[in-house]
Design brief:
468 residues, binds zinc ion, UDP-N-acetylmuramoyl-L-alanine:D-glutamate ligase, 22% strand, six-stranded mixed β-sheet, single chain, 29% helix, Protein-Tyrosine Phosphatase, Chain A, alpha/beta, nine-stranded mixed β-sheet
Length: 468
Amino acid sequence: MSQATRALARPETRPGSVLVAGSSGKGTTCRILAEVLYAAGLHPVLTAHGARSWPDGWTRDGAPRKSIRLVEVDAAPLVRRIPPPAAIVCTNILRGRPDDDTAGAALTAQLERAIRSLPASTTLILNADDPRVASLAASRPNPRLYFGMSDPVHGRVRKEPAAEIPCCPGCGERLSYARVYYAHLGHWACGACGLGRPDPTVNVTKIGLVGSSSSRLHLGATSASAALKVPLPGIYNAYNALAAVTVATYLGLPAWSLRAVENASGGPMRMERTRVAERDVYLAVAENATGYTEVLRAILGDGEPRRMLLGLSAPQRPLQDISWIWDVDFESLAGLVPTPVLCGNRAADLGVRLEYAGWLGTRRAQGHPAGASIEPDPIRAVRAAILGTPPGQSLWIVSTATALAVIRSWLRRHHHVPHSVAERAERADWADRADCAEPTERAEHRRQRRAYRQPSGRPQPERAGAAG
Ligand SMILES: [Zn+2]
């Protein structure tokens, strides 16, 4: 184990912690990292969503030795209220909308302030492909590790600056990109001041996107290289896995423990899979243009047609702006979804958007776009979508959170989505997993832990306090 791991693991120093911040991917990064830590014999304790659950998580007694707290921080100012972390990970800083960067600028400023308030010993683990993340607290002496994509095949080549690209963090001029993987994440440089993407310590040299459910990453690192299967689709999840692997590298975890990435799940409504009447049903939440675009690309990127239920819900009083749906890249995926079902109180708006994107043909019937089935009620819509999906095939449900939560509750009431295990795992004291799990799940945990053991008989790290 590295010095960092030993320091985190020392029982008398209280648990170490790793904060995970950024616009998106925090929860999934924590979950992937927790699997790796667990496989390596450590005790990951996840605390999600910052302020609301932090006091519970922190004051709970009886935390086993060798625990590492993974704290998903929604609001950067929270950093000031918790003990200084060993490391802070920044996944990305996305724009709310291509033509409005208020949210991105605010988060950048919050993170900058938060990191400056941390001790100089806290390691910064930063996404090299995001210019604002890579440039956070640039003048501070903290140790830094960068992660990034280096796959020369994936990603779009875009030499010209575009509106959704942030300005140079150094001089404010427009950045240029040799390659964009998603949103504004890619190989960036500033022609005016010479600032550019730092060389990543850990990078993905090749991404194999396998269908709509997983990907294979070939990693290159200064110390090791490996190929990992990530059981979550899309480039954005490849970034989440890469962030987790970079933390594992910082902690000096053994290379074999990285295989546990294969065991990760995205969590509720994060490409969550369930089985209903002989159909696989996937739930994916998408709350903004970038999220919607990337989830759709992850599902439809291989060009295979798929059954889908799309949802759009937004408060009517006060009226919430949903014009961001015009920024979703539906156009490049037209023709891949036969007769989508649309739900949510703004389903009709979504129908108009899809019609313009060429998803629905040009015919109109009864004022509704042709080729779509519009059912604002999410439960009636999911019933119709399941019935419209032949047994043995899969249904993908992509929606904003309100409508999707209604669908998930309905599935849970009908026992298609697990009650206690998933939700306690969401609060995720991982020691609880064995306590709350069903017997079959306990057996699965034991099987997984055996599977991580080295065939060569490498002694396993002690796991104090772990049940199961
Ligand atoms: Zn510049």
